[in-house]
Amino acid sequence: MRKPEFIIFAPSFDENVGGRIVLHTLCARLNELGYPAALWPMSKPPTRRCWQWPTLRRHLGYLARRDEKHFSTGPFPRRIARYRDLAGATVVYPEMVAGNPLGSARVARWFLHRPGFHTGGRVDYGPGEIYFFYEPGFNDPAINPHPDHHLQLTYLNPAYRQTNFGPREGTCYVVRKGALRPSLKIDRHPSDAVCVDEMSHEERAAVFNKCTALYSYDMYTFYSTYAALCGCVPIVVPDEEVTAQQWVPDPERRYGLAYGEDQVGWAIRTRPDLLERIRRTRELEDDYVHDFVAKCRRHFGSADA
């Protein structure tokens, strides 16, 4: 097995947490496209050199809990990085990770949300890093002035597909990260709407196939797209200070989604375009991954650049 060129610093896979899903997806896609990659569990100590008690205690705790054995990679092939793999590899951290826990000389930072969003505004990055963003709205030009450093990957859960092609009734809503939106009241949905936040994927897909509309207080959750795939109109509760163009600049990526109730007509008209775009997505995402690798190699002076 070839030594990893990329090591993805990630928590265990969780099918309900989008950030975890895409980190594991990146590792899988890199391997599929011929770029050796492995995962580094976030709880795994950065070194085996346990000369000091805090480091030794952490290492012993990691072994005692058998964290690596229980580290889930979900539906993806399992490949966990070894200590000797760190030398020369590019480590990929999500934006919420402070500093450089693995002490890598090559750090790629992936903005899975706006830097500082999950850390109370604190941003702790190091010199010489290269930055990529999942959504254009997640990029901070003051940190990353390169608008072409776009790296977006999707994992489509097979539970979400339209099974009801007949009458529908009722509405549902999802809150998720919408709870963190300042001053937003969770009151835009009808009083009898069903909350889908704590449901399993199968339960949520069944609700999406029953209801006419989903009210989403989380402006970026993929559940809005999943609702559209099930034939339910996703209504994203808008930020009054953010236009639809600012929310998602690429109109193709707004297909099937209503940014506010006045956009319901747009969502219904463009749903067929959403389905076609999803069919084209895999080829586009492979291009993103190739571009990501090329940019990292150029940035760090790889011989393969």
Low-confidence stretches: none
The residue fraction in helices comes out at: 25-40%
Alpha carbon gyration radius: 21 Å
Distance between the termini: 22 Å
Q: Indicate how many domains the architecture comprises.
A: 2
Number of alpha- plus pi-helical segments: 7
Subunit organisation of the chains:
single chain
Q: Could you tell me the number of beta strands?
A: 10
Mean pLDDT: 90
Q: Return the structural class.
A: alpha/beta
- SSE string, helices as H and strands as E: EHEHHEEEEEHEHEHEH
Query: What spatial order of strands do you see in the largest sheet?
Result: 2-1-3-4-5
Shape: globular
Report on the biggest sheet.
5 strands, parallel
State which percent range the strand residues make up: 5-15%
Summarize the structure in words.
The chain has 305 residues and is an alpha/beta fold. It folds into two domains: 6-154; 171-280, no CATH class. Helices cover 30% and strands 13% of the residues. The chain has seven helices and ten strands. It has helices at 18-32, 53-65, 67-70, 201-210, 223-229, 244-247, 264-300, and strands at residues 6-10, 37-41, 90-94, 107-111, 130-133, 171-174, 194-195, 213-216, 233-236, 258-259. The strands form two sheets. It has a five-stranded parallel sheet, with helices on one face. It has a five-stranded parallel sheet with strand order 7-6-8-9-10. The radius of gyration is 21 Å and the shape is globular. It starts with 5 loop residues before the first strand and ends in a 5-residue tail after the last helix. It comes from Sphingomonas parva. This is WavQ.
